[in-house]
Amino acid sequence: MQCIFVTFKYKLPITCIKGVCLISHKKYMELTLKLAERGKGLTSPNPMVGCIIVKRGRIVGKGWHKKAGTEHAEVLAIQDAGKKTINSTMYVNLEPCSHWGRTPPCTEKILEAGVREVIIGMKDPNPEVHGYMELKARGIKTKIGILEDEAKKLNQFFIKWVKTKKPFVIIKVAMSADGRIATKTGDSKYITSKEARTLVHKLRTEVDAVMVGLNTVLRDDPELTPRLYAGKDPLKIVVDSALKMPKKCNLMKNPGKLIIATTNKAPKNEIQKMKDKGIRVIEAKSSRGMVDITDLMKQLGKHEITSVMIEGGSELNSSAIQAGVVDKIMIFTAPKLIGNGHGAIGNLGVSKIDKAINLKDTACSRIGKDMLVEGYL
């Protein structure tokens, strides 16, 4: 049997069938997902989308969404391919938009470009998007559901926000082997290794906001910036029920990046002073004198904040878990013993082991000298 060899821009596994060398849809979609990932942390509240255009076994165009309000991946790939889009196959990890939003609908651009076939990773959870059916109805050959699980995981922040209008919430914990996040004197710098801290800083560049409680600000005076990893600096949210934030703490140095979540118990004149400095103040409902975490998440969602990483203490962690707003937990454990000190998670009301909260889809990995356990609630 004679094989026909084709020159490719990208090295991908080739399967020979009846003398013709073919690259599977999955392999092309893998490349599409990698392109989409380049927008991680930059596209919110939009999803991460990648797109490649293939013609005669060769990738002739590629693009990825870089920022909300800018051209979508499909449009950039079409521009990259030029006239080669005629009778080509397009791969995109998310269903192309079919409605007018910040930008025109991609379905129209695809039709105008003469694309013959569109292969889609997953359906867009936005009920206004019907790109798959639109293309199919207008004569474009379409397939959907290629590497769907991988596509959904990549855009898990976007999917939750679109469906619930609440952010995807991660709790990050850095603790000793005996479950302590600080000594009894409050010292916590640094329990985990530099490798673990670098990964946390990378995670900060990927979420919209990092959240702590007032006690963490008073104890650690954190900066919550990605100092160890080059990337986007996230918003900082401080849960401060009575507005007792120190006026000269590190987080006050960049008021444009700061959100303070408080209650109606906070003095109105202090709220106004914060706003005058350029700080965004959210007055959430009160629950037993504290910020109602559920209401806070609803309000953050209205501000188009699609993801939050909680880096607080045990009280904030347990409050968020009990409120049912947490989607994922990441626990970094250092090979150290502290003994009497501050625990990682406060009271969850669990009195028997069979009532313990079980994590789902768990994974364990080594980060430097530390271990990372992560799972979903």
Topology (SSEs and partners):
Layout: E1 15-17, E2 20-22, H1 25-36, E3 50-55, E4 58-64, H2 73-81, E5 89-94, H3 106-113, E6 117-122, H4 131-137, E7 141-144, H5 148-154, H6 156-164, E8 168-176, E9 180-183, H7 194-206, E10 209-213, H8 214-220, E11 235-239, E12 258-262, H9 268-276, E13 280-283, E14 286-287, E15 290-291, H10 293-302, E16 307-310, H11 314-323, E17 328-334, E18 341-343, E19 360-367, E20 370-376
Parallel strand pairs: 5-6, 6-7, 8-16, 8-17, 10-11, 10-16, 11-12, 12-13
Antiparallel strand pairs: 1-2, 3-4, 3-5, 9-18, 14-15, 17-20, 19-20
Protein architecture, described:
It is a single chain. By secondary structure, this protein is an alpha/beta fold. Helices cover 27% and strands 27% of the residues. The strands form five sheets. It has a nine-stranded mixed β-sheet. Strand 10, helix 8 and strand 11 form a beta-alpha-beta unit.
